[in-house]
Amino acid sequence: MSETHTAPRSSPGGIAVAEHSHGGRTKAELRAEKLEGSKLHDTASHDPADFPVPTGREEEWRFTPIAKLRGLFDGSATSDGKVVVEVDAAPEVRVERVPRGDARLGGTYTPFDRVAAQAFSSFETATVLTVPRDTVVAQPTVVTVRGEGGNGAAYGHLLVTVEPFAQAVVVLDHQGSATYADNVELAVGDGASLTFVSLQDWVDDTIHLGHQHVRLGRDARVKHVAVTFGGEVVRLFPSVSYAATGGDAELIGMYFADSGQHLEHRLYVDHSLPRCRSNVVYKGALQGATARSVWIGDVLIRPEAEGISTFELNRNLILSDGARADSVPNLEIQTGEIEGAGHASTTGRFDDEQLFYLMARGIPEDEARRLVVHGFFAELVARIGVPELQERLLTAIESELAGASA
Fold it and tell me: Exposed, middle or buried by CB within 10 Å (0-12, 13-18, 19+), for 406?
């Protein structure tokens, strides 16, 4: 792998209907941990040899076109892909480049599939962002990962630490062309708040498999946003765990799949402590005969997680014949002493009644379709809460719709 990096401009250190409801460890401890009585992610290791090579028949891989993964799933990919990492940091944010052996890396997260473990064992240097204690950062910090081709794969690692009572916005912007696997660790300290936006705006020949783990301290808050428009195969795996009570996780996602694209989002929220909260809302649109999306939402509520509240929602809009959306929300509940837990999933075709209503009022068909889809996504765009990104996302949606009508 070849990587280049630029310095920050200023740095001290360099989202049919189915719905129902239901009423700091060490690295060694993380690696050895098994979720007893649970079917969810029961192996965790930094070593890819601890995971069998996927065949595509496993539950966690059955939706993924592994034949298209260019060797990322079995370790046969060469490591000579080229990725450039640039950091445009807010003045208060400390930026570092550290080797894989740095003791901070892997301290909040242990990979739970083979590709994530391969990425962890293959990256050379990691980007580390630190938001100092009690600091309120006024502007986003942007990390741009730009693929510049190459015959093999590239691997990456990002660690964001938001120290207690600090507040920050971090944007991870994926661009260009690559075969890429990476891990992202987001450590949010006691009373701290992080908005993290991951944009998958790749060129359409890109293969990207990424894990993004959030670890929340006492009364910490995170808004995790995933927006996926580009790439041939993108398999993004956000996950959340809690280090203390009172943690609050909001996970928002948007995706738009065209012909030839496979966009897969797999989420895992591990409620292991009392009085924590999670809320998940993902929305996707699909157009083209071979467009494919997959959304898996796994929530585990352990016996100790009394008084928690969780809900997950996935909605898919099918814009053309042949497109396919798989949506699988899962709840595993090991205690009844909770405030609430529920999930909902909807997948449906374009609403002809809405279209007729608008056309009956003199709006041309193409414009009527645009308005319906725009409204489908607009609520989520507003919830992201990063004004600097809203215009870019709305423009991207318009571009996708232009492709649908072409």
Answer: exposed
